[in-house]
Here is the input.
Amino acid sequence: MVRRALLLALDNYSHSRLAPLQAPRNDGERLREALLGLGYANQAIDLHISSRNGELSTQRMRTRIRDFVESGKPNDELLIYISGHGMDQDAARLVVPVDYDMDDPMPADQLLSDHWLYGTARASKAEAVLVIADTCRSGAELVLRPTVLSKDISERPTATAPSATHGDAPTIAILYSCAKGRKSFATDGEAGESFFTRELCRVLADDKRAFTLGEVVDAVTQELAEAEAHHRQQPFLDERFTLPGRRGVPTKLVIKENEAARLSQRIDLSPWCRMLKETPFWPTVVAECSALGWQLLALAVRAETMLAEASRVLPGDRWRTDAALRRVYKGIEHLLGQTPVEAELAAMLLAAPLVHEAILAGLVLRLAAAGPVLDPPRAQAEPTASALAARAWRQALDRDDDFERRRAHLRLSGSAPQADDLLVWQLWSFAYGAGELWAYAPEKPAGASGWLNDQLNELLVPGITGQRNGA
Here is the structure.
């Protein structure tokens, strides 16, 4: 995962009736330091202060933001921060550029709007796009040229309800420093700072309880209420511009890295976890012990991850189907019928198929570490677990002349895919007959007893249920 940030600070407003702002440049620098403290790489943070790096007109802001969002890659999480003057107009929140002319005001559709930001983010290949807008500054009375917002701004359909998840789009959220129609306050002078960004940075740096977006927003809201109660400024997440995408529900976006928060996010996104919860055994488990249910969910996401990695290594495996696990659970349900099942047995019934899938995936990953999975090397320099597994698989292939002749015949007859299918079938036949694959001695290193000791140790380690202290 790569986290990147674009920070835009609009401070040098040029019109005589639109006062320059001291806070945005200080806020941008302060947020940059906070992000570095969260583990962002220095080169992953692009801070643009208009008085230092060139004025930020609407077109330049759009270009910078569009280039940033379009550069997003799978597994990227993007953050866009904008600090400056802003205004509300009809259904839009608008960012005022530094070259705004109060004597010849622009129409709304020539300003940067939250509608445009949402639409631009929607097309990104990134996993998530979070926009933080610290605008609508107090002390500025702004006017627009009389106009009706263009259809693509004012009449754009609102974001899909949070109950649906869009795997073809990033998770999107826009966080405002204040509610619609309210002002965002800041102190004056060279050391001026926005109340909102100040408290946001404090929460990011010091709060040991807030890790997800929802938790961070709640913490900042509380800090603002305590520090600046007379201003009644409240951060605001607009549901129109939230989209549950590749990273799931926006409020569960992980802002501050934490193992438990990331695990919870993976559980929310996991088809296998949803499958577990749909079985008749799940209510029995969680009613008896919710922590046991959490361990099963942690096991499911780890096994699912191992299988995804194995599928990338062995993409031609047509013997396995994604429906296999569901069929196993349905088969168990059919066999037991209405027989009452205690929580311990129900948990075992749910866990065993997950461990089975993980072990088969673990074999593929072990073989891949030694060489081509379907053509293992005949000699290995070191007696590692991967080498031991590859040697045994190689020997199994070399002993079976009949299958080798059948594969050769299929390839000569132009049926190479069928020859590969036969080879994969041989792999799984070998797997079920290899005792070392299924042996597990957790206190021993991989290869000393079982080939997957270390992988199974990681698979079966208890999941973190509530320890979210940032460690």
Q: What stands out?
A: DSSP finds 18 helices and nine strands in the chain. Residues 148-164, 465-471 have pLDDT under 50 and may be disordered. The beta strands are 2-9, 45-49, 76-83, 86-89, 92-95, 112-113, 128-134, 171-176, 236-237. Residues 265-460 form one domain.
